[in-house]
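Hi C.,

You asked whether I'd gotten around to modeling the 127-residue construct. I have! Everything is below, sequence then structure, no commentary in between.
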Amino acid sequence: MLRLNLIAQWVLRLTGLFQIVTGFAFWFGYLAHWTPAHMQSGVLLTLMLWLLALMAGFADVNRTLVAVGLLWGILVMLLGFSQTELVPGSAHWVIQVLHLLVGLGALGLGEALAKRIKVARSAPAQS
């Protein structure tokens, strides 16, 4: 399970980096034709968050953190797929900032889950 944890963590990190780079490029008016790749990468990032949350659940990590990870993934998907319709016009930047913060939150949660999985799996069995 630790190898899968490490793979999921690195996929999360790399897709997160891609998300940040392409997201800022969109803000500054570049790479608009990369929107589908940005969306697909966001789906992959969310799947890795869910995978880490499920693995954390099986590793007896704090159930609240596991639940937050699963629910946060739903929030990422909902906001990501609907953001273009939310608050159109000059105030749309608020949604863009929210989108960025929710995405960064997903990265942080994924890292926290991966760390707790490592700790739980590395700890000696309690008798």
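If it helps when you're writing up: Residues 2-120 form one domain.

Thanks,
B.
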